[in-house]
Every structure is written in C-alpha cells, then in structure tokens.
Amino acid sequence: MIKIGLFYGTDTGNTETIAKEIKKKLEAKLGEGTVDMLEIYKKKKEDMDKYDILILGMPTWYDGELQGDWEEFIPEMEKVDFTNKKVAFFGLGDQYGYAAYFCDALGVFADIVEKNGGKLSGMWPVKGYEHDESKAQRGDKFVGLCLDTDNQDELTNERIDAWLPQVLQEFGIAVPA
Q: Fewer beta carbons within 10 Å, N or C terminal of the chain?
C-alpha cells in the first residue's frame, strides 16, 4: 500500500488548511488512509524516516523568515537521509508584500533535501506570479508549488488540481481510472 507522509507547519492555520485539501484530494485518487498528515511541531528525524514519499508544506514569513516549527526542525532535517526518497514541496507566501522573499522557505528546505541525497518532485512554473526574487526559484521553476492565498486565492484550488497529478506521476504512482 502507498503511504505518503504529508508534513506541514503553520502559525495561522493557512498551511494546515492547504495540507488538509491536498490530503483530501490525494485520498480521493489513491484511497482512504494513504496520506498521513503530520504537523512538524516536535517531530524528529525518525518521523520522516518512516516514509519513502514525502510532501512538505510550509509558509514563508515576512522578510524570508521560516515558520517557527520548521526552523526548529532544521537540525533534525539535516540528519535525514533522503536517498531513495521522493519529496515534493508546497508553500505559502505573499508575492506583493514580500516580493523579494516569496516562498523562500521552500528553497531553504529543498537545499537540505538535495544535499542529503533527495530528489525533488513537483517543480512548478513561475509564470503567473509577480514576485522579484525567491530562494525557491530555479530558473523558470519553483522547487515546489507556491501559493499566495492573500493575493491570488482564486487560483489556489486550480493550482493544487494541476500540481497533484504532476507530483503523482513524478512519484511513479499510477492513479486508478
């Protein structure tokens, strides 16, 4: 049975809301119980070690600040061997108010995953966003799905619906018809 670890951190509840939506949509395609949704608060390396497939969700605060629970998790994250793990990111940010730091957290954690042998899935086009810079940007793609629920909330579900099939395909998961 497929088992996906969906880890998220949240302060306002927005990232948790998106995580719940992603879990709901994935389980509609893959079956009930295929996604374990886990808040990153007080988690350890061993919690991630249990999964070969990971989806990691995080907001970026203000001038590129990490969400507190994710920031505290960095020492644990740096211990995870991501070799043979498939990892996808989604993140929330404000592309207008903090245009120079849009979804930076994804880039910070993607660097750790790649440094520790992981392969990123779910790269997402930057077209359609109006930011200046982002640590999450590599050329014309973000390292994961970037969402701006403050300024482009009307695109959130559409973006999730387009991103999930891409991620499942890159994970090598066949979706029943």
A: C
Query: Model-level pTM greater than 0.85?
Result: yes
| CA distance readout (Å), 126 to 6, 48, 140, 144, 148 | 23, 28, 6, 10, 12
Residue 56 is encoded by which pair of tokens? 């990691």
Q: What is the C-alpha to C-alpha distance for residues 79 and 24, in angstroms, rounded to an integer? A: 30
**Domains of the chain, CATH where assigned:** 4-171 (3.40.50.360)
Query: What distance in Å separates the CA atoms of residue 98 and residue 160, rounded to the nearest whole number?
Result: 22
At 113 the pLDDT is 97
Q: What is the mean pLDDT of residues 130-146?
A: 95
